[in-house]
Amino acid sequence: xxxxxxxxxxxxxxxxxxxxxxxxxxxxxxxxxxxxxxxxxxxxxxxxxxxxxxxxxxxxxxxxxxxxxxxxxxxxxxxxxxxxxxxxxxxxxxxxxxxxxxxxxxxxxxxxxxx
Length: 115
Description:
The chain is α+β, with helices and mostly antiparallel strands. It has three helices and five strands; from the N terminus they run H-E-E-H-E-E-E-H.
């Protein structure tokens, strides 16, 4: 079951590499390749901010926008998940459900490298 199914308000998602290459997307309205590239830049800058602030490893970047949210989550060192949600995104449910999704994706990606 996807985050879209488990969390009210999740509308689209993009899985990409940390260098901005699209892996897979569940999108209806956004250009997935553009989101992948922009999310990689966002993750890179945000990781640098976290390092400089000495607050530990970056987990997620949340942008609250006029009519929704964009959340970029690190998936290990190799990938990132970008989730878009509408104005009704259930942030508490997202924060509760997203770690399991990130862990599952990390395992799948690690298994892919092993072969």
